[in-house]
From TrEMBL:
<dbReference type="InterPro" id="IPR001789">
    <property type="entry name" value="Sig_transdc_resp-reg_receiver"/>
</dbReference>
<feature type="active site">
    <location>
        <position position="164"/>
    </location>
</feature>
<dbReference type="InterPro" id="IPR035909">
    <property type="entry name" value="CheB_C"/>
</dbReference>
<keyword id="KW-0597">Phosphoprotein</keyword>
<dbReference type="InterPro" id="IPR000673">
    <property type="entry name" value="Sig_transdc_resp-reg_Me-estase"/>
</dbReference>
<feature type="active site">
    <location>
        <position position="286"/>
    </location>
</feature>
<keyword id="KW-0145">Chemotaxis</keyword>
<dbReference type="InterPro" id="IPR011006">
    <property type="entry name" value="CheY-like_superfamily"/>
</dbReference>
<keyword id="KW-0378">Hydrolase</keyword>
<protein>
    <recommendedName>
        <fullName>Protein-glutamate methylesterase/protein-glutamine glutaminase</fullName>
        <ecNumber>3.1.1.61</ecNumber>
        <ecNumber>3.5.1.44</ecNumber>
    </recommendedName>
</protein>
<feature type="domain" description="CheB-type methylesterase">
    <location>
        <begin position="157"/>
        <end position="342"/>
    </location>
</feature>
<keyword id="KW-0963">Cytoplasm</keyword>
<feature type="active site">
    <location>
        <position position="190"/>
    </location>
</feature>
<comment type="similarity">
    <text>Belongs to the CheB family.</text>
</comment>
<comment type="function">
    <text>Involved in chemotaxis. Part of a chemotaxis signal transduction system that modulates chemotaxis in response to various stimuli. Catalyzes the demethylation of specific methylglutamate residues introduced into the chemoreceptors (methyl-accepting chemotaxis proteins or MCP) by CheR. Also mediates the irreversible deamidation of specific glutamine residues to glutamic acid.</text>
</comment>
<feature type="modified residue" description="4-aspartylphosphate">
    <location>
        <position position="55"/>
    </location>
</feature>
<dbReference type="Pfam" id="PF01339">
    <property type="entry name" value="CheB_methylest"/>
</dbReference>
Length: 342
């Protein structure tokens, strides 16, 4: 099947480069290009592309505002392709929180143009083409932060969360329901490590609790959320009297580094029945075996339902193993997690 791509970028040179590079791929067809949001909107209506690549810095309506409209009115796989998506840039995290499948920088960390990338952008497009959106059933509900604060299960020593494609958006919804004295929470989100710090800051702004990048041997405290930094280390939990974050170099687990399975397996071993495991949207099966281990250790385990997942792969794999005690829409998972309600 040929993947039909629409390129939206205000630079004629960049549109030509992207079109040339992507046209070298036998399974990708650039069906059109647009220089601004208005033209892009008309071409989306006309061609109904499988994937859209979208620049951020454009005249008139900028890429983030246009992305928000796309995801609200006509959700489809969007990859941000922009010079704005470099290390530490909040724009990247904002785009992912709005529903972009992934972000790709036009430039490498040294500032050089990085479009001749041996197919990295094409690979992202292939993954994005597998994403479907079921937003009709993702209705918002009133915040339950105060209710959650009053009813947190006192036996919870740690909450562990895993997510991938669509995960930043899901995490923003989940964590917004966590009170500022929530149980210690550790998260593995599959993401380019260049964007991890910006994602942590974006999540922190949406969450009453403090969200930060996990560092080696940090004591985990209530009211704190620890996000895996990415790169070449797995995030695990360790310790006896005091639980601590552990960053360990190693090979990929379940195809990923860091891996959700690596985190969940350590939680099952160290925390056991006093943990809660949450597996959110994502492609593949990372986290399924680990959630099963947590379930068998007596932990309360939750998987996001299909209707509110961007990609149901990871939760589906866990559910098929019988690893999830609860299957719930994203806007009700916090309640299930904090109260351990079945």
């Amino acid at each position: 099947m040929t993947i039909r791509v629409l390129v939206i970028d205000d630079s004629p040179t960049m549109r030509a480069i992207l079109m040339s590079r992507l046209s070298e791929q036998p399974d990708i067809s650039v069906i059109g290009t647009a220089s601004n949001a208005a033209d892009g909107r008309e071409m989306i209506k006309r061609f109904n592309p499988d994937v859209v690549t979208l620049d951020i810095e454009m005249p008139g309506m900028n890429g983030l505002d246009f992305l928000e409209k796309i995801m609200t009115l006509r959700p489809m796989p969007v990859i941000i392709v922009s010079g704005a998506t470099q290390e530490g840039n909040e724009t990247t995290a904002r785009a992912l929180a709005l529903g972009a499948v992934d972000c790709y920088s036009k430039f490498d960390p040294s500032g050089k143009l990085d479009i001749g990338d041996n197919g990295r952008l094409a690979a992202l497009i292939r993954l994005a083409a597998q994403v479907t959106f079921n937003r009709g059933q993702q209705a918002a509900v009133a915040s339950v932060v105060e209710q959650s604060r009053r009813s947190i299960d006192g036996d919870i020593k740690l909450i562990a969360v895993g997510s991938s494609t669509g995960g930043v958006e899901a995490l923003q919804i989940l964590l917004s329901e966590f009170p500022d004295d929530c149980p210690p929470t550790m998260i593995v989100q599959h993401v380019n490590p260049r964007f991890a710090s910006a994602i942590a800051r974006t999540l922190d702004s949406a969450c009453p609790a403090r969200v930060q990048i996990a560092e080696a041997d940090m004591p985990v405290r209530p009211g704190n959320v620890y996000l895996a930094p990415g790169g070449d280390q797995h995030l695990k939990v360790g310790g006896t009297r005091t639980l601590r974050t552990k960053l360990r170099a190693g090979e990929p687990v379940s195809g990923h580094l860091p891996s959700v399975d690596a985190l969940f397996l350590s939680v099952a071993e160290v925390v056991g029945a006093q943990a809660v495991g949450i597996l959110l949207t994502g492609m593949g099966a990372d986290g399924a075996k680990g959630l099963l281990a947590m379930h068998r250790a007596g932990a309360h385990t939750i998987a996001q339902d299909e209707a509110t997942c961007t990609v149901f792969g990871m939760p589906r794999a866990a559910i098929s193993l019988g690893a999830a005690r609860v299957i719930a829409p994203i806007n009700r998972i916090a309640r299930h997690a904090l109260t351990k309600a079945a």
